[in-house]
Structures are given as structure tokens and as C-alpha cells.
Amino acid sequence: MEPQSVSITTEYIKLEALLKLANLVSSGGEAKCLIQDGQVSVNGQVCRMRGKKLRPGDRVAFAGRELTVQ
């Protein structure tokens, strides 16, 4: 599957905010649970830090979808 690009206008975006911005979750609470359950990976590594700062070039995988921060 082709990665979906998500554009940000700041230096970074937090992981939970990226999942909400990309409409992969409906709330911050849902994002928190999924991240803490180890269902999200960042640059190929499982990430359990919902406040993880993502910068352009970072790749996030969740539920069979892949996002690239632009």
C-alpha cells in the first residue's frame, strides 16, 4: 500500500495528534490506548510513547496503513 503523506506546518507533531489528523482514530483517548497497546510503529519500531515527536521524513504504521510526515 502506498504511504499517505501528512503535511505539518510546525517543526514536529506528536504521535497521537498525527493519528487524529490523519483520521485514523476518533479521539485522543483512543489514540492513547492503541499506542500504549503497541499497535503503532514509528520508523519500523513499535512505539508506546504517545507524545513521541515526529518530524518530516518519519513514517508511522498502524492498522495496515502507513503515514509519512511531510
From TrEMBL:
InterPro entries on file: S4_RNA-bd (IPR002942), S4_RNA-bd_sf (IPR036986)
A GO molecular function held by the record: RNA binding
Domain RNA-binding S4 intervals: 13-68
UniProtKB keywords: RNA-binding
SUPFAM superfamilies recorded: Alpha-L RNA-binding motif
Highest taxon of source: Bacteria
CDD domains linked to this entry: S4 (cd00165)
Pfam family, one: S4_2
Protein name: RNA-binding S4 domain-containing protein
Lineage: Bacteria, Bacillati, Bacillota, Clostridia, Eubacteriales
